[in-house]
Amino acid sequence: MTLPVDQRRRLGAFLRARREALAPAAIGLPTGRRRTPGLRREEVAQLSGLSTTWYSWVEQGRDIALSAPALARLAEALRLSPAERAYLFELTRRRDPAAPATRVPDAAPPELLDTLHALSAPVYLLDRLWQARGWNAAAGRLFAPWLDSGEPCLLRFVFLHAAARRFIHDWEDRARRLLAEFRADTGHNPDDPAMDDLVRDLRGRSAEFATFWNDHAVLAREGGLRTFDHPQDGTSRYEQVTFVPASRPDHKLVVLLPRSCGEGLRTQPVDSRVETRST
Question: Has residue 149 been placed in a domain?
Answer without folding.
Answer: yes
